[in-house]
Amino acid sequence: MKTFIVAGLVFGMLVLFHEFGHFSVAKLVGIKVHEFAIGMGPKILSYKGAETRYSVRIFPIGGYVKMEGEDEQSSDVRSFNNKPLLARLSVILAGPLMNFVLAVILFSIIFYSVGFPTTTIGETTKDLPAYKSGLQTGDKILAIDDKKVGTWDEIVKNIKESNKDNIKISYERNDKKEHVYITPVINKEDNRRIIGITPRFEKSIVKSIKYSFDRIIFIIDEMFKFFGRLFAGKASSSDVVGPVGIIHIVGEAAKTNIYNVLSLAALISINLGMVNLLPIPALDGGRIIFLLFEGISGKPIDPEKEGMIHFTGFILLMGLMLFMVYKDLLRFVL
Fold first, then answer.
1. Dihedral angle of Cα 277, 279, 281, 283, to the nearest 10 degrees
2. Average pLDDT in the 33-47 region?
3. Which of 63, 293, 301, 307 places its Cα 20 to 30 Å from the Cα of 212?
């Protein structure tokens, strides 16, 4: 039960931020919004405002902002399709953008609460390679194999991806630059190459926000690399999870501490923002493609025809989601 409650809160927060992005900008540019819904399926709660109905629905796996004239012809001056191109583009982009804003907020909370890792060594693990090489607490890592590093994530990544037996670690101690060669060992828990160092943590509001942006850029870069491996046939579809898998992972995070849950929520939010920008009908990226086509051609596509294309895309996405649910059930439940 705890797993479902936490997962529901996480999904609800992600959907709320995403849809609020669409909703707030739509209101800002004067588009008539009929409904602002969090969740899908039958209504649990509903409130009718002066113009917009606000509702919470039973399945917290999505949501929507129903705007006048978005997928149909409308002569209303406040309809979506009667607004300038830039206004419509802003409304569509606002949803994914809010997912990245949420990730910044969550990472900033984590980094300021527990501190953020720096490139300075906080501790070396006894009997592991870094300790044996003479690296000490307070040494600042400057480069791995002559590749400059500015974050702890880059240190971990470069050690993990290095294919050399001896890795050159450049560091600074007492204002003197030194280097040492270290042979990594394999961490049995995650099969990752390590040398046995942990970072020193710092607390700063400004640096926490900056590091949040660095973390988001790092995650997006890893996502692009994963998509590249996936299309090249070098990654397995088993590395991708659906709703059930995400619920399972959230449940595991909930068994540890709130910061792991927040970190996972930030990661999912970034994924949600990136996936929504893919040029697929029914997703925000698909709608952006239609708007860009209109900007280039100078002629909008018939809203009803575009709506049908998006509806077809929605059906295909629902089919994909059901397939992912089936795979998740086999993997995590059955």
1. 0
2. 92
3. 63
Spatial separation of the C-alpha atoms in residues 207 and 201, rounded to whole Å? 11
Give catalytic status of residue 294 as yes or no.
no
Range of the domain at 32: 2-112+262-333
Q: Is the residue at 289 inside a domain?
A: yes
CB-side exposure of 53: number of CA atoms within 13 Å? 12
- The tally of domains found in the chain comes to 2
For helices 243-254 and 303-328, angle between their N-to-C axes, nearest 10 degrees:
60
Give yes or no: residues 171 and 136 share one domain. yes
Same domain, yes or no: 126 and 170: yes
Of 197, 130, 192, nearest in space to 161 by CA: 192
Band (pLDDT 50/70/90 cuts) for residue 3 is confident
**Chain segment 128-159, per-residue pLDDT in tens:** 999 999 999 999 999 999 999 988 989 999 99
Same domain for 6 and 105, yes or no, is: yes
| CATH number of the CATH domain containing 187 | 2.30.42.10
| Residue 15, in any domain of the structure | yes
Q: Which of 19, 68, 70, 154 is catalytic?
A: 19
Which amino acid appears at position 281 of this protein?
Answer: P
pLDDT in tens, 73-128: 888 999 998 999 999 999 999 999 999 999 999 999 999 998 888 999 999 999 89
